[in-house]
Write a structure and sequence with these properties.
alpha+beta, 6 helices
Length: 179
C-alpha cells in the first residue's frame, strides 16, 4: 500500500490507472509462458514423437515377423508329447500362485481342420481361487506355450462378497502331427 501512496504523489491513482498494473501482470505471465513453459512442452513433444516412431517401427517389425511365421506354423508348434508339459505347467503355476486345481482332463478334438499337419486337443481344468492369481497364471501359461489358446473361462461365486471362486477353463492345444 505504501507503494501506491508514493505513486499518488506522481499523479498515479488506482481508480484511474488500474489497467496498467493488470496489463503488466498479464505481460509477465505471457513472458513466463513463452520462455519457460513453451520450451519444456516442446521438449516433451519431441520425446513423445521419438517414442511414437520407435513403437511404430516395432509394430511394423512384429507384423512382418508374424507374416513370415504364419507361413510355417506347424514347424513352430510342439509335438503331442509336449501336452504333458502344458498340464504340468498349469498345475505348477496354479499352485505357485495360490490356486487349487481340482480337476484337469483332455480329449482329442475333431480333426476338421484344413491343415492335416496340425492336430488339436481340448484341455479342461477346474480351479478354485481368486481372480488376480488366475490372471497371472493364465498370462504366464499362454506366454510360455505358443500352441495353447484359451477358449472359455467361467467364473462362479457362492456369494457376491466371496473372493474365492470356482473357475472352469477350456483350452485348445494345437500340436504338430508326426509326418
Amino acid at each position: 500500500m505504501r507503494f501506491f501512496k508514493k505513486m499518488q504523489q506522481f499523479g498515479f491513482s488506482q481508480r484511474k490507472h488500474w489497467p496498467w498494473p493488470a496489463t503488466g501482470v498479464v505481460l509477465c505471465a505471457a513472458a513466463w509462458l513463452f520462455f519457460v513453459e513453451l520450451p519444456a512442452q516442446r521438449a516433451d513433444n519431441q520425446a513423445a514423437q521419438v517414442k511414437v516412431r520407435m513403437l511404430e517401427a516395432q509394430l511394423r517389425a512384429q507384423t512382418n515377423v508374424a507374416a513370415v511365421h504364419s507361413q510355417n506354423l506347424p514347424a513352430q508348434l510342439g509335438g503331442f508329447d509336449s501336452l504333458s508339459l502344458v498340464t504340468a505347467d498349469l498345475q505348477s503355476l496354479a499352485t505357485q500362485n495360490g490356486l487349487l486345481m481340482s480337476d484337469a482332463s483332455f480329449k482329442p478334438a475333431g480333426d476338421n481342420q484344413p491343415d492335416a499337419r496340425i492336430g488339436r486337443v481340448e484341455v479342461n481344468a477346474r480351479i478354485k481361487g481368486a481372480y488376480l492369481p488366475l490372471k497371472k497364471t493364465l498370462a504366464a501359461l499362454l506366454a510360455t506355450h505358443g500352441g495353447l489358446a484359451l477358449d472359455s473361462l467361467s467364473l462362479r461365486r457362492a456369494r457376491a462378497s466371496d473372493i474365492v471362486m470356482d473357475i472352469d477353463l477350456r483350452f485348445t492345444y494345437f500340436y504338430r502331427k508326426p509326418s
